[in-house]
Write a structure and sequence with these properties.
- The complex is a heterodimer of chains A (333) and B (393).
- By secondary structure, chain A is α/β, with parallel strands linked by helices.
- Chain A is 37% helix and 13% strand.
- Chain A contains 14 helices and eight strands.
- In chain A, strand 7 and strand 8 form a beta hairpin.
- In chain A, helix 3 crosses helix 9 and helix 5 packs parallel to helix 7.
- Classes of the chains: A alpha/beta (333), B alpha/beta (393).
- Strand 2 of chain A pairs parallel with strand 9 of chain B.
């Protein structure tokens, strides 16, 4: 590429000119502001066309494939809810037997990953299949109408964890899936968020290069289930990271090898207030609501401390800068 | 060449000769010996495949499904609880019309837990949409396994080869394992046209609305009905190569003019044939081995039952609250052609209870009644039950 010539035109134009592979096309049935649809697009763009996908049951499967239409431009398969890990294992074994290098991707939501499909994923990781498993985490069973999963954060309201005179939303903590996955001693496990597209791309490309099981956990706001304006999905996702509630980190084997530092940690209230699922924490004078808010703040503070998210120095690629710095600019330098 | 082989070992060698590329299985008695033998063949370089030792039967079925969709010939085996754990995926495989072969080493289903043989497991997934073939002996299991791959791949339907646990899987018999060249001649390399391929991306397992669902079910049903022809053809073509036929949809042993028939599935067939010789004083009897249970061979069955006054269906499983599972289908099939044939339904050998030769005399005695005998578990011993559980003092 002639950089001198390109530098004469705008970055916008450059981006438009770049032939970018899209694994999932527009026209699908996702809700406005769906975090998962955006994440799936970013993942498949970065993974490229030489892939085969095993997709667990869930929103992503439903909204992309209303027969006879399909939004997928990569070979894609859905079997049942709890077996994406095993389907992917089988695909990988078959491609290996056929001497092909096509990479296998497995997609699941938090229900299909944290809960019902957990065993198949554990088996896939333990057997060392060359599969990139991507968990699109929207923190509840959204496809069936917002029921709590083991990924639903503490105190969140869902249809099966409603607040009431005896309850303040979900009573239990969000399962620490990344650590559990990493405990299989896999070469790479990372979290990321739709608020940081370049971070998603970077991590997908990294995982694609690894021969062996890898896991990427993407935080994907769901406007319907979380109760926020679809236009605010990115903002909500970014606040989850900036408050420390969703740490963006990378693990090799079980070792922490990278984290996105938070330049200015925000109080969790800023994040919670944007979402109807935490409304009960703000609309009552109940002491329990205040306690839960303190509890959630303590969880965020713990994450910041545990993963050293505030960092020691200024970092251009921290939660404020990561997106702006990496988006385009440096790639053309 | 005949070799003394355990059923499981013979099945493993038959599978190997079909050259599957991916084998996935989870241990469960009495299926275990089959996969152990496959593992041995792989370890000794006599079989070249990816052997995936999964963490559950659910994943075993899922791994072979994923592998088949990626274009590989596959194999799995299970039994009993394992078949039930697979059930959701078995329906899924059939609904997607994925060609594959699995062995069901037939075993009772818990509770009460029993590791021994009956056919409750495969009967429980009767409606999953798989072809189901039942084997009378271990040679039949070998030949049927090989035929099953051709049937599956030509019909794009999965085939479950049902082999009685222990009775066959753990029994040594003289068995002829066909030469590799014979199998290669019979079974062309797997070429699954709908396999996932990055060069021509397709989507499989999509969401189907009421606008298309009945049509999908209809074509699946039709495919199973049409598979009957492929089952017959595979048996005939394999017989040309191997010199052995397995009976196609069903086999009949006995005089054409017999008035009494006994129909069964699986290894009890051999017991009945032997028992008939033991009791030559009893009326002439046709013994029918129903090899294909799905698709259900209505026409062949009607032909086989020509001239029968009494047909005993010997069940190896039951539907509690109704009775036999096979007899109602047999009865319904015969109604239009042989309405006068009395169909009797008896379950025998549940949970591995031994089926002695005397059963043959007992069956004959039970059909002497004027009305068809109601369904019973013919070898139940009521004195073993407390009175409050319908036992006798």
């Amino acid at each position: 590429m002639n950089t001198e010539k390109n530098s004469a035109i705008s970055i916008e134009q450059l981006r438009r000119n770049q032939p970018r592979f899209e694994g999932i096309k527009s026209g699908h049935r996702a809700c406005l502001g769906c975090g998962q649809a955006l994440a799936a697009r970013l993942v498949t763009e970065a993974a490229g066309p030489d892939v085969v996908v095993a997709n667990a049951t869930g929103c992503l499967e439903i909204f992309t494939t209303p027969w006879p239409e399909s939004a997928w431009h990569i070979p894609w398969m859905h079997s049942v809810f709890e077996n994406a890990g095993a389907i992917a294992s089988g695909m990988e074994a078959a491609l290996k037997a056929q001497g092909k290098s096509t990479k296998v991707l497995a997609f699941g939501g938090d229900g299909g990953t944290f809960d019902i499909g957990f065993q198949a994923i554990s088996g896939m990781l333990e057997r060392g299949h060359n599969v990139l498993y991507v968990c699109f985490d929207n923190e509840a069973y959204m496809n069936t109408g917002i029921q709590r999963s083991s990924s639903t954060p503490h105190a969140a309201m869902t249809t099966t964890s409603p607040p009431g005179s005896e309850r303040m939303g979900k009573r239990h903590l969000k399962k620490d899936i990344l650590t559990i996955v990493a405990a299989h001693h896999i070469p790479y496990a990372a979290t990321t968020s739709i608020a940081y597209p370049s971070d998603i791309r970077k991590k997908v490309r990294r995982a694609m290069d690894i021969e062996g099981p890898t896991f990427i956990h993407i935080h994907c706001p769901c406007p319907l289930g979380w109760g926020h304006d679809g236009a605010n999905s990115i903002k909500v996702a970014r606040l989850a990271v900036q408050t420390g509630l969703f740490p963006v980190i990378e693990l090799e084997r079980t070792e922490l090898i990278g984290s996105m530092p938070i330049r200015h940690p925000k109080p969790v209230v800023e994040y919670l207030k944007m979402q109807q699922r935490f409304r009960h924490l703000f609309t009552t004078k109940d002491a329990r609501a205040r306690e839960e808010l303190e509890h959630i703040q303590a969880l965020a503070d713990h994450n910041i401390k545990h993963f050293n998210l505030q960092g020691d120095t200024m970092d251009a690629l921290d939660s404020d800068g990561a997106d702006t710095v990496r988006r385009g600019g440096m790639r053309w330098a | 060449m005949l070799k003394a082989l355990e059923g499981s070992q013979a099945i493993a060698q038959a599978v190997a000769s079909c050259r599957p590329q991916v084998v996935a299985a989870y241990p469960i008695t009495p299926q275990t010996h089959i996969v152990e033998n496959i593992a041995k063949l792989v370890a000794n370089g006599k079989m070249h495949c990816e052997m995936v030792s999964v963490e559950s039967e659910f994943s075993a079925a899922s791994v072979v499904l994923g592998a088949a969709c990626a274009g590989s010939r596959t194999y799995t085996a299970s039994a009993s609880q394992g078949i039930l754990l697979m059930a959701e995926v078995l329906y899924n495989i059939a609904g997607m019309r994925i060609p594959m072969v699995m062995t069901c080493a037939n075993r009772a289903v818990s509770a009460p837990i029993s590791i021994w043989n009956d056919q409750q497991d495969s009967m429980a997934v009767r409606d999953a949409g798989w072809i189901q073939l039942y084997c009378a002996d271990n040679q039949d299991a070998v030949d049927t396994t090989i035929q099953a791959y051709r049937i599956a791949e030509r019909t794009e339907l999965p085939v479950m080869v049902c082999v009685d646990g222990f009775t066959l899987t753990h029994t040594l018999e003289p068995i002829d394992i066909p030469e590799q060249a014979m199998v290669d001649q019979f079974l062309p390399a797997f070429n699954f046209k709908r396999a996932l391929n990055p060069a021509q991306p397709t989507s499989m397992g999509t969401l189907v609305s009421p606008d298309f669902f009945p049509e999908a079910r209809y074509s699946h049903h039709q495919a199973l009905l049409h598979a009957a022809d492929e089952i017959v053809a595979a048996d005939a073509d394999w017989a040309k190569i191997s010199g052995r036929a397995s009976g196609g949809l069903l086999s009949i042993d006995g005089p054409d003019d017999a008035k009494i028939g006994i129909l069964t599935l699986g290894s009890v067939y051999g017991t009945l044939v032997e028992a008939r010789e033991e009791y030559p004083d009893l009326p002439a009897t046709k013994i029918i081995n129903l090899r294909a249970f799905r698709p259900f061979p209505v026409a062949a069955l009607c032909e086989a039952c020509q001239g029968l006054t009494d047909l005993i269906v010997l069940e190896r499983a039951l539907s509690p609250g109704y009775g036999g599972i096979v007899a109602p289908e047999v009865q319904a099939s015969l109604t239009s052609v042989h309405a006068a044939t009395r169909v009797h339904s008896f379950a025998v050998g549940l949970g591995g209870r031994d089926i002695p030769l005397e059963i043959y005399r007992k069956l004959h005695r039970r059909i002497q009644l004027e009305e068809p005998a109601p369904f019973t578990i013919i070898d139940v011993e009521l004195e073993r039950l407390p009175v409050e559980d319908y036992g006798v003092e």
